[in-house]
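User: I'm putting together notes for a lab meeting next week and I want to include a structural view of one of the chains we've been expressing. I don't have a solved structure, so I'd like a prediction I can at least talk through. The sequence is below, exactly as it appears in our construct file.
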Amino acid sequence: MVRKMRTLEGLKRYKIVTVTDRTDLEVQLRETARLSGEALRPTDQDLRRRESPTALTQRILAETTPDIVFAMLQKYQDVDRPAANDAKVAMTIFRKEKKPGKDEPVVEREVTFAESIRFAEFPVLNESPEILVLVDEAHRSHTRSMHRNLRRALPNAAIIGFTGTPILSHEKTETREIFGDFIDKYLLRDAELDGATVPILYEGRTADGLVKDAPSLDKLFEDMFRTYTQKELAIIKAKYGTEGDVLEAPMLIEQKARDMIRHYVGVVLPEGYKAQVVAASRRAAVVFHEKLLAARDELVRDLEGLPTATLVLPDQEIERLDPQTQFLVRAHALLPLIRALDVAVVISGNHDDPESWRDWTNKEKQFEYAKRFKRKLATERTEKTDPLAMMVVNNMLLTGFDAPIEQVICLDRKMVAHDLLQAIARVNRTCGRKKCGYVVDCCRRCLIFIDKFRCIILFLLCFQNSRRS
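Assistant: Thanks for the context. Below is the predicted structure for the 469-residue chain, given as structure tokens.
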């Protein structure tokens, strides 16, 4: 669009300001911006060194030059400045400059800077009507207050929001109330018909966590805690009787991990694609890592134990075997790849996290995991191939993470509305012969039947069995 604007007399002078709310999204857009071939004025590095970050921010937005400027505005809580209207502002500006000498080639310089600035103090920076603001992920962090402050800084700019999941709910401010009515719509079905995305298939699966004999469990609870007062029982229910306790229980995760591995090997691995697992919490994500690797090793042992006579049976004979043996016979050809399959975790970090979580919360390592995950699946790790087949997350890499090789996402946490659509869109990218993406729901049916009272029994039983083992 920017390249087209530069060919039109009435639009070629426009300054383009692209607003994002995540670093990874800005990285994607930066790479795309380089394709526009912008010819912009030289960068004065000496002048920039003499300016404060705030002055630099305000000066760049106040300039009338037709730059492409990237701004990242995010609400945050700062212990030193707890004002609700504070925001982080990070900007990247792209310009081209010539080296000394007429015949020297034009080279591109990229300057990135970040600062903290109060929205309440954000002044009018540029009243020019020749400014176009493009807001990415407009449904998410671009609230009424953020939009109002952007308008204050650039009062005459044209502001357009882009979103794959507009908020259309009375419980939250609708996207249309902030940006105005839709200019254009491009639906999932349109993308599928155009071949831009592949269809998404849904599959509901459940581990063996069903409360089959609820009255007996109720009686068991009464017997186990008959000496406790009502006040003490209320404390126990509040502390242990939660869905989170059940979803983090190692025994339940173990069953789900075993099912995920076998589903992946049977459906996704034969085509060479990869998987993402969305855990209910950061702790659950770490447990999933351990259990997925254990399930992989268990499957390898089962495959190695298959009798040679079974492996050489004709197809007609294999069809008469039990489903489990049929699965193993068909998966045996993939044994070298299954042995090499690796799993990584990408989760946000806190200062009091266990030391063992550092590999999963370190930013540099997270970037490397994401890079490895996007490579072609193979037993050898090279610049183009990698055995990293599964990525376990909680909140990270569910938006803005573009890995076409991903074909299945396993959901083990409750997700609704635009959050759900953003997550499942990780698997609809086209890639080679990929015909569809899979969404495997491991959470919904597992929670419907569990009320808070019986949840306590499940948690206590899982806890006792875990200690015993």
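A couple of points you could mention at the meeting. Residues 188 and 194 are 10 Å apart (CA to CA). The chain has two domains: 2-185, 200-468.

User: Perfect, that's what I needed.
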